Amino acid sequence: MEFTKDFYEDEVRNGFYIPGIMKRCWAAAIEILLELDRICKKYDISYYIDYGTLIGAKRHGGFIPWDDDIDISMNREDFNRFAEVVEKELPPELSFNSLEKSRDYDNVIACLGFHDISLDDQRLRKYHEFPYMNAIDICINDSIAKNAEQENLRESKILVLSKLLKHVLEEDCSGKSFEKTMNLVESTLQVHFNRKEALKPQVYRLLNKFCKEFEGEKGRKDLYAWIPGAMQFKQYYYPQEDVFPLSTICFEGISFPAPKNVDKILRIEYGDYETPNISGGAHNYPYFHRYEKNFIDLLGGEDKWHFRYRFKKEDLIHEKKENIRDMVFSVLRTLGQEEEEMKSREEDYNYLQTVLADLQTTALTIGNTIEQHLGENTETVALLSSYCEILFQAYEKTQRGDSPKEELIALKEKRLECEKTLKKEWKKTMLILLDKAKNFSSIEGFYQKMLEREDWKVLLMPIPYCYRRGNGELMDEEFDLEDFPKDYTYVDYKTYAFDVMLPECIVMNSPYDSCNMVHSIDPFFYSSNMKQYTKNLLYIPWFVTKDVEWGAEEDGKAIVMMDYYACQPALAHADYSFVQSEVMRKAYIEKLTEFTGEEFRAEWEKKIIAAGSCLLGQEKELTRHVLDCLEI
Hints:
With 632 residues, the chain is of the alpha/beta class. 44% of the residues lie in helices and 15% in strands. Strands 3, 4, 5, 6, 7, 8 and 9 form a seven-stranded mixed beta sheet that branches. α15 (441-451) links the parallel β12 (428-434) and β13. α11 runs antiparallel to α14 (405-425).
């Protein structure tokens, strides 16, 4: 399956941040599902997408933004046929697991996928550069007993077994409570567990036996169920007429089988499924986090792993350099100091002649510097010429033995006029770095507001970026210049002399530097490098999310996702980062403090500014906050 390149990029859906590595996880899961779909079509086996995947298709047209896997369902009869043919049909990198196949398998849900971490080029290319293990879940629906008494008996047995499973899942398999439960289960269900073997597969095999109890002619034909649901005290009963004949539904742009009555099935499973609910907290989300250490080891150790930011307190240090404009204004202020000193020694003509000659040389140097940067015929250079004439007049007076008192007063007036005019002619420079054209709306309103300022020259600089392979290698360079609005002027990154220009402010909207597994701007433009070329490095995010309330259980997954955009290099290297709201400011501060340690809380409280976002129509507020920080 081919996806467009931007499918793999970090994205915000329904206010939830989805990192690019999750998008690759999704793409890999779809690829596995397509293999299953191919096999099922070949052998006329029925299956359909279900649970969170079905909700996603119905409500979002694809994955639920905070989901990280694919669920399908099969009736037991179809599952048995699938299990008979699947292994001879699978490509070598995929495997199928179920309780029927392996005594060591320990889940009532079967799965199909790859179950190892790999940097094999061929597998990475086929499965969209996703290196971690990935599998789709296959839920098996079973027949209902023909009479209620038999069904109630099965449910009661499953509920007894669930007491033991609870101990197993919580790894609480010792002590009096466990032994009491074990004895109860064995005596009630007339079974014996082998204490020398792993207990979890044994419990699931027994559960699976109960699920299949009414296969074939023993069960009803008009109703079936997801039997293990009884362990959660909710039996999922599915009327045959609401499932078959199957329909189709679009999932991430691809048609897959779905129940005949999607709405009915989802209401059986979830009730009000139409209202998004980020349930489950952050436990084990995303699932591939638990395999990161294995991946790092496969790469060759921490030194080869660049995709997690490792904070150092030195990153907070920003040694600021003066640019040529700063130096010119500094020299002009020095002229003022010399003027004041001459006033205090206006009768010391030898001293005055020496200083006046030096000031003449200095003023000429300033004029030449201004012409080099602003061109000829500026008003400031004309005023400096007048300043030099006054210096010459003062010098002539001292030679005649006359006091240049009036000229010294005139010098100050002319210099102050020069400074005022120069501020208009030689504006402070703000350079805005842009990588993806589609994210320009996050900064465009701010740019337009800054254009209204008389004291700032604002430049837009599109910069190159590239995608990464699954092993971290950079792919071919991308450059979106032609996709940016045509009514703006852009600066060529190839010819801009950063070390000479040293703009007063550089604005970034990519926080990752090298710490994004899917995407990278050109390394020259990493925040760690950019801060050496400016006095003010600012970060304005390219996105907004739903406000994340720190500590709220329903925001648990969103807080985990902050690892991918808050715990990033630009937040440390930038002098200020401007986030969308006060609620998000608190979340950033708490997340970064948790990440770096309590001793750095004050740094984050200073650096993180609640300023609004252009994406929320708050460019005026954002601009005001930025200017307030630049004036500090």
